[in-house]
Amino acid sequence: MGFFSIDTLITIIAAVFTLGILILIHELGHFMIARMVGIRVERFSIGMPPRLLSIQNKVDGIWIKLFIPWFIQKLVDAQSIEYRIRRKHPKAGDTEYALSWTPFGGYVKMSGMIDESMDGEITGKSWEFNSKKRWQQLLTISGGVLMNTILAFILFSGIVLVSGIENPVDGTFVGSMVSTEAREVFPAETAGIREGDQIVAVNGQSVYEWEELTSIVQKIPGETIVVEWISNGVRRSDSILVVKETVPTAEGTLDIGMIGIGRVLEHQDVSFTESIQYGARSTYLFGTLMARALWSMITGETDMDQVGGPVMIAKMAGEMARRGWLEIFYFMAIISVNLAFINILPIPGLDGGHFLIISIEGIIRRPLPLNVKLVIQQVGMFFLLGLVLFITIQDIARL
Fold first, then answer.
1. How many helices (H) and strands (E) does the chain have?
2. How far is CA 391 from CA 181, 200, 308, 340, 396, in A?
3. Which helix (DSSP H) or strand (DSSP E) does residue 66 occupy?
4. Closest-CA residue to 309 (of 381, 392, 383)
C-alpha cells in the first residue's frame, strides 16, 4: 500500500473522523457540566494549539479571529486578523470557540483551573473552578468520561436497532469459514470443509447440536481430531489439528481450541427496548474487557508488544471504513468505552488524576499546594507522553 494511495487516504480520514469525534464528545462533556454548575469556560477548542480560527460573542458583536502561522507573521506584520459581525441586540458571551491546527484532540479551558500547562490564574471569583464545591468539581472532571460512556451506549444501541442481530440456528451446519488477521486459513478449510456442510461426528462420536461440537473441540487445543462431515450428500472424514486461539469473554480472555468454522446465523430485528438492553450490555462488556486487559498487562500475563496505540487505531479505523459505516461506528463505540476507562484511571495528567487530587483535598479539607499539584501533573504528563511514544514506535514496527 503506497503512502499516497486511496487506502492511505481512507485510513487518514477515518482516523481523524473517529478520534476527532470521540475527543470532541469528551471535551463537550466537560464543557456542558462546567456550564451547568456555573463554571466559566474561557475557551472550547476543537484540536490542539496553536489556534487557527476562533469566534466569540462580545458586547459589540460577534468577533471572528484568524490566527497567522508563526512562520509568516513577520512577513505580513500581524499575529491575527479580526473581523466583527455587527448585531442589533448584541449579547456578550464568556467562551471563545476555537478551531486549532492539530486535528487530534481538543480542550476546555476553565476559569480558575491551573493544570500542567500553567495557563491561567486564580482570583477567587465565584465562577472559577476552585471556587465551586467539591462535588461540582468532581462532576465537571467526570464529564468527559460520562459523555464517552453515553456515546458508546448510544452507538451500540443504535447499531443493533438499525441492523438487528444474528441468532444461531439449531444443528451442526457450517455457516461460515473463520479467518483472522494472524491466521487467514484454519485447519477445517484446509481439510476441505465448506459453508453448507454438516458436521456429523468427532472422533467417532456423533454430534447433533453445535454446543456438542464446541464442547469437544474447545477443550483440546493442540490435539488432532477425526472429523466426519456431509458435503453435497457425500460423507467425508479427515484428521484436523485443533489450534489454540485467545478470545475475549465477559470474564476476561480465554484460550480455546478451534478448527475454524462458524455456525449458521439467522437475522432478527430487535425492538427499541431490546436495543437499549443490548447497548447497556455491550458497554459493560467492553469496559470490563478493558479493565481485565489492563490488569493482565500489570501482572505480566499480556506482553506490552500486544498493546495498540494511535497508529494501530488509525489502521483499524481505515479497515472499518472500507467495510462500511456501521463497522466504523461499532469500532468508534469500542474506542469510546476504552477512552472513558483510561481517562478515569487515577494517573496524573488524566481526568482520574484530577479526580484523585480533588478527592484528597476534600478529605484533608484544604487544597494541596499549587506547586505540588503542578509537579504531580507534569510528572504524570511526562509518563503518559513517554508511554504513547513507546506504543507508537511499536505500532510502526508492526506495520
1. 11, 14
2. 20, 46, 7, 19, 9
3. strand 61-67
4. 392
Give the whole-angstrom CA distance, residue 287 versus residue 273. Answer: 22
- Using CB atoms within 10 A of its CB, is residue 252 exposed (0-12), middle (13-18) or buried (19+)? middle
Flag the least confident range among 1-15, 196-210, 281-295: 1-15
Q: Which three cell numbers stand for residue 274?
A: 431490546
SS3 46: strand
- Total-model pTM: 0.77
**Neighbour-count burial for 123-137, b at 16+ CB within 10 Å, e otherwise:** eeeebbbbbbeeebb
| C-alpha cell belonging to residue 392 | 507508537
* Class of the CATH-defined domain 167-267: mainly beta
Query: According to the model, what pLDDT value does residue 156 have?
Result: 94
C-alpha cell of residue 256: 480455546
User: Pairing mode, if any, of strands 261-263 and 174-177?
Assistant: antiparallel
Q: Which of 129-143, 271-285, 305-319 is predicted with the least confidence, judged by mean pLDDT? A: 305-319
Which of 98, 88, 103, 107 minimizes the C-alpha distance to 56? 98
The boundaries of every CATH 2.30.42.10 domain in the chain are 167-267
